[in-house]
Design brief:
The relative contact order is 0.09. With 492 residues, the protein is of the alpha+beta class. Strand 21 and strand 22 form a beta hairpin. It is built from 10 helices and 28 strands. Helix content is 20%, strand content 34%.
Length: 492
């Protein structure tokens, strides 16, 4: 790949044979889209080595990084005498280097002339499932590595299932260590056949299979002459060209309000990130939960007003009418509403060291909304290695289950498969403030399907004999509890 060549005399650079000014190059770089991807696979499948080789061969390392890599390879490398251990670029923890495994999620950024990338190198061990979930939560694409010598194994299936659970639409099956199988086409075809049969029920629209050797660099950045039978692109060629523009939901407009912007008496706007859909100046919109309607007067950004906005842009919407909207509420199109309710079915991934106490209530953080919630009941727990479903009444670290949740106040949501931002949530322990669980909403649940009473606590001021002069203080306290996510009905 051609690198930009500096011409100090006229302040121009040459990129891939094209001469342009520095300002033009920087502007072009700013407009490049971003691909977020993760690597997953069993221990020693070569995830960290692959990323290291990708960075090395694409010439995206600085001189000090190269020097450190060569020094560390001689000192603690496992690639053999005189060879560079590319995995050391990602395995930065002392424990990782000592054990030769990835423990934490390592993020690496690099850019080519066509696209910017953020790579999450995730652990292969089952005990680090939560780390992989964290790394894959924002990924557009997943690279599933398998060892050509072992093929599709239990860990491969587990990682593929987790990727499907996270709604990742693009999967690359990277059959690594082909050099140890003499670059055999038969070996590659057998592994592809096994993987294709397994992945078919998951409804993943884009699956690409690539034979490669991370250690030797075959089919990583450029096509290898050692696999003349493979007619597809190299890994980097595919990453640069894979279409991710349609991954965002552009149909259902959802705008969770992050805060109300009031810089002066003449301006009142609602700031946040467009979760999905497109909003245009002049569009009729509806505020939830109030149900009041208005029109978009302005779409304001730091760089000036826009005629329309789309995900994941952060904007401020100014409406034509004065509508009472607060943080945690949502602006949508009146003819395209999300689900509104207090109960839904979701897949849960438990991430806390402490086992789940089903009697405990949690804070549920959904978009910008915060409320109390509890587990109504579990439908089943799933074994991520065998995909077997079993009954359960609690969850422990890294376990996954389908459960029905009940919230203290109404939330506005979509199914995770339709809209990731409005279909995902986290559960927060109210005592430790730890993120205990991540969840993906499957569907709304009617009141008849709940096993526990969903009645909200009621504060009847007349029955309690509360004097009128004390009631404003009670209303203030209830409003604060509501802000913290605990809904209480007040009757007077």
């Amino acid at each position: 790949m051609n690198q930009p060549q500096n011409n100090a005399q006229n302040e121009e650079i040459v990129v891939e044979g094209r001469r342009m000014s520095i300002e033009e190059y920087l502007d072009q770089d700013e407009r490049k889209d971003l691909l977020r991807l993760l690597t997953a696979g069993s221990v020693d499948d070569g995830k960290s080595t692959l990323i290291g080789r990708l960075l090395f061969d694409s010439k995206k390392l600085y001189e000090d990084q190269l020097s450190a890599l060569e020094r560390d390879s001689r000192r603690v490398g496992n690639a053999g005498a005189g060879k560079i251990d590319y995995a050391l670029l990602c395995d930065g923890l002392k424990a990782e280097r000592e054990q030769g495994i990835t423990i934490d999620v390592a993020y690496r950024y690099f850019s080519t002339n066509k696209r910017k990338f953020i790579i999450a190198d995730t652990p292969g061990h089952e005990q680090y499932t939560r780390n992989m979930i964290t790394g894959g939560s924002t990924a557009n694409l997943a690279i599933i590595l398998v060892d050509a010598r072992t093929g599709v194994i239990t860990q491969t299936k587990r990682h593929t299932y987790l990727c499907s659970l996270l709604g990742i639409r693009h999967i690359v099956l990277a059959v690594n260590k082909m050099d140890l199988e003499d670059y055999s086409q038969d070996v590659f075809n057998r592994i592809v056949k096994d993987f294709t049969a397994f992945i078919e029920p998951f409804d993943i629209p884009d699956v690409r299979c690539i034979p490669l050797s991370a250690l030797e660099g075959d089919n990583v950045v450029s096509r290898s002459e050692r696999t003349p039978w493979y007619e597809g692109p190299s890994l980097l060629e595919y990453l640069e060209t894979v279409e991710i523009g349609n991954d965002h939901n552009l149909k259902d407009f959802r705008f969770p309000v992050q805060y109300v912007l009031r810089p002066d008496l003449d301006f009142r706007g609602f700031s946040g990130k467009v979760a999905s859909g497109i909003v245009r100046k002049g569009d009729r919109v509806l505020a939830l939960p109030s149900g009041k309607e208005s029109r978009v007067k302005r779409i304001v950004t730091y760089d000036g007003d826009l005629d329309y906005a789309f995900p994941p842009q952060s904007v401020t919407l100014q409406l034509e009418d004065e509508i009472d909207i607060s943080r945690g509420e949502m602006i949508v199109h009146p003819d395209n509403l999300p689900e509104v309710g207090r109960s839904f079915e979701a897949m849960l991934v438990w991430m806390d060291e402490e086992p789940m106490d089903v009697k405990k209530s949690f804070y549920l953080k959904h978009t910008t909304n915060l409320t109390r919630c509890k587990i109504d009941h579990f439908d089943y727990k799933i074994n991520v290695n065998t995909l077997e479903r079993t009954a359960t009444d609690h969850l422990e670290l890294n376990e996954i289950a389908c459960a029905t949740l009940l919230t203290a106040k109404e939330v506005f949501f979509d199914a995770y498969k339709d809209d990731k931002p409005t279909g995902a949530f986290i559960l927060i322990d109210p005592i430790t403030n730890n993120t205990s669980c991540v969840g993906m909403i499957l569907r709304p649940v009617s009141q008849e399907d709940l096993r526990e009473s969903d009645a909200l606590p009621v504060l009847d001021l007349n029955k309690l004999g509360i004097a009128p002069e004390h009631r404003p203080a009670i209303r203030t306290a209830v409003a604060e509890l509501r802000r913290q996510g605990l809904e209480i009905l007040v009757r007077e």
